[in-house]
What we know:
Residues 253-358 form the DUF5643 domain. The chain is of the alpha+beta class.
Amino acid sequence: MNNNNLEKQLRELGRANTPELPPLLRSRQDSIYATLGTIVQDPPEKKKKRKVYPKIAAVAAAILISVMLTAIYPPALANALKQLPWVGGIFERADDLGLQAAQRLGLISRPNSSDTHDGITLSAEEAVFDGSRLAFSVKREAEELDGNLTGVTVGSDGKPFLEKGTITSATVLINGATLEEYSDGLWEAMPLLTWLGGKEDNTAIFRLVDSSNLGLSAKPFPDQFVLTVTIGLEGIDEPFILQIPAQKVTTNTISTPDISAQAVGWTMLLQKLEYSPLTTRLSLMFEQGADGDPSALNGISFEVKDEQGVVLNFISQKTLPSSNGSFHVDLLTEPFDKHPNRLTIRAYLNEFKDPKSKTGAFRTDSSGNPVKHYIDGLEISVLVQ
Length: 385
């Protein structure tokens, strides 16, 4: 539903026979009006300190409308009010420090691209690109859909299924070239595309990461390109096509520490550290020694934390083995909230519920987090510029 249709519905309902507000609702209305009065009627000398007031006023006004109108016309306005825009963007509400920073620093762009089929509209809302990852948000608008845009729904019989309007597939073109064409036919060099749900059920956040840190002849992303995204939705025959202009908007700091650590017949080498307001990226190489067990590091993961013990949240990891038993790891995490003096990278393996198994469910601690088995010796500490 667009804003014009919503406003039309509100006007039509407002012309209807509106009953007298009950005392409790009248009291709530007066209270909210009083709050709005304190927001917009500060003395002149306080005007310079009112940076957040427009957002607060918008929230209060939305609360006032929803309290008044849903109490009077709950059936007619239930769906209309669900279409009201949230205060802030999808990135701003994401559980991702990099996307929040991009919003705060004014780095995001608005692709202004949408496609509609069968009464469903998908629109590209925001995008940001730092050379390592391109992130963009997508919103779905439809009259009758209540399910999530991403993921599966569990039915009453306990079986998962895809509701109508849920993403089933996504493919991209970089300046008109498929990922296979862009990577000259090398699947190992293909950029990695992933997506996850946003804070609202009808939103999703996509991210595309190149493979240029894996010791291949993989192309890094150009500083500027156009991404064409084709998205399939459950129950809709026609795919949705969106255009995302990408332009690098950060100046990244890159260092090549060449620091190593040794343990269990393996050497771990930190070849490259790159960070921006959007991501922290590490290029690691593992070399197998003469006494190294080729399977000892299967399923290896990493923890990156600063000197205060703050662990950077994981974004993606891509591993590429070589013929001599060595392998490269391209690791992306969220950026640090405060610039650290030092980062520590620790390798670990997850423990499984069945200690005799190498697959299956992870063993978790009392808080529900996977239990980490740190690998003695495979730890690197590096100064941050």
